[in-house]
Amino acid sequence: MNALLICSGGFDSVTLAYRLAAEQSLGALLTFDYGQRHRKEIDAARLAAQRLAVPHLVMDIGQIGRQLSGSALTDDIAVPHGHYSEETMKVTVVPNRNAIMLTIAFGVAASRGLDTVALAVHGGDHFIYPDCRPDFIRLFGEMQARALDGVAEVALLAPYVNTDKTEIARDAARFGVPVADTWSCYEGGDLHCGRCGTCVERIEAMVLAGTPDPTPYKDSQYWRDAVARVNACTP
């Protein structure tokens, strides 16, 4: 396998990069600049590529991103705080983002002679993001096999799609990921906020995995209240 990994620079995708590199299956990282609120995650992806000694491709799709309005990740909308399973987190959806990125990634992989497109979607994303669910991943892979029929054979790899983020945290420890140098926070401040959905999920996963989290957070305790609030609402 020689994979093109869609890498945002976040905890999940950088962990998958280190896993693939350890398996000698990583060909290149592909990062999309779609007009997100900040560029810290792009810088984190670039650093990961440098450390893993693989090409880092940055694709500017800002013109497309400007048309995908209404998300807290791209517009001047307050980033909600809390757990991903809360209804308020739907404001972080960027419509069809993964479908757009994957379509481009398959074309790039075919053009560069790479045989796999990889991404780090996981089970915790299913509630909020429809283009992270197992059925979407399966059907998209089938669609691309037809789109490239007779041109190239490119598989779709999503090893975490049926697991939760705790498994990613275990892999981060297993493969020596420099966790503090990944960027997940939606806020884009000097430190991870510790309160947005992705910060809460990141801290919770590391705790459940029993692995140390060297990331400095502005609020390292809020996640407990967020998780307790969700658990109280679960039958």
TrEMBL record:
Q: Any idea what this protein is called?
A: 7-cyano-7-deazaguanine synthase
Q: Which residues bind Zn(2+)?
A: C185, C193, C196, C199
Share an example GO biological-process annotation for this protein.
tRNA queuosine(34) biosynthetic process
A molecular function (GO) held by this record is: ligase activity, forming carbon-nitrogen bonds
Q: Which family does the similarity line name?
A: Belongs to the QueC family.
InterPro entries given for it? QueC, Rossmann-like_a/b/a_fold
Q: How is the cofactor bound?
A: Binds 1 zinc ion per subunit.
This protein's cofactor list reads: Zn(2+)
State where ATP binds: C7, S8, G9, G10, F11, D12, S13, V14, T15, L16, A17
Write down the EC number.
Answer: 6.3.4.20
The pathway to which it is assigned is: Purine metabolism; 7-cyano-7-deazaguanine biosynthesis
Recite the UniProt keywords alphabetically.
ATP-binding, Ligase, Metal-binding, Nucleotide-binding, Queuosine biosynthesis, Zinc
